[in-house]
Design goal:
The chain is an alpha+beta fold. The protein has 2 domains: about 1-20 and about 170-195; about 20-170, Galactose-binding domain-like (Jelly Rolls), CATH 2.60.120.260. About 20% of the residues lie in helices and about 45% in strands. The chain has 2 helices and 9 strands; from the N terminus they run H-E-E-E-E-E-E-E-E-E-H. The chain has helices spanning about 1-20, 175-195, and strands at about 25, 30-35, 50, 70-75, 80-100, 105-110, 115-125, 130-155, 155-170. It binds calcium ion (CA) (2 copies).
């Protein structure tokens, strides 16, 4: 009886715990682009504009890929164009990862669960040439339902090929029920053990 109770309790806790593990919660998020500069790259010949969904497909381009080949790219003034990523489910996010054109600065904002936008960080993937990486560890996790990327520095020619946000989806009520059941059974088992001793 005792062993069985503990086994059930552990199963409940493991099921609840897996819902809290850090993953890329932006994966397959819905991507929307806005602004008249999207797909424009004057002076660079014809670019190859990627589908917005390529920003959350979990795939990176080879480092140093030319900024307007197979990316979501745009030209224009800072803040005029945007790439918005709606998460499939609200999530608590600890860190961000961005593959973008190397010589620019990208501001990332997040939308909270009350639909209010907040400034978060600026990521500058200044390492080499073409597409490169930048990341940001957040001081405190944010509860987000969406992210928005805009250019705030650089040469007027911008692009993004991958955005990832690491954290955990906000647990569904069933997860809390599972956690509660697991902890309750553990407490019950502990009390029984104490009484027997
Ligand atoms: Ca650039
Ligand atoms: Ca991608």
């Amino acid at each position: 009886m005792m062993k069985k109770t503990i086994a059930i309790a552990l199963t409940c806790l493991a099921a609840a715990g897996s819902a809290f593990a850090d993953t890329n919660v932006a994966l397959n998020g819905t991507v929307t682009v806005a602004g008249s500069g999207i797909g424009q790259s004057p002076g660079w010949g014809d670019g190859v504009l990627a589908a917005p969904s390529s920003v959350t497909d979990g795939l990176f381009l080879p480092t140093n890929t030319q900024w307007n080949l197979g990316t979501v790219y745009w030209t224009g003034s800072y803040g005029a164009d945007s790439v918005t990523i709606d998460l499939l489910q609200a999530a608590s996010v600890n860190s961000l990862y961005l593959q973008a054109d190397n010589n620019d600065d990208y501001r990332v904002q997040y939308r909270d669960t009350a639909n209010v936008w907040h400034d978060l960080v600026t990521i500058s993937p200044h390492r080499s040439v073409g597409m490169d990486y930048g990341s940001a560890a957040l001081g405190a996790p944010v509860l987000a339902s969406a992210f928005m990327i805009t250019a705030v520095g650089g040469d007027g020619a911008f692009s993004v090929s991958e955005f990832q946000a690491f954290g955990s989806a906000v647990p569904e009520p069933e997860t809390y029920a599972m956690l509660g059941a697991g902890l309750g059974l553990m407490a019950f088992a502990a009390r029984r053990k104490q009484r027997k001793a």
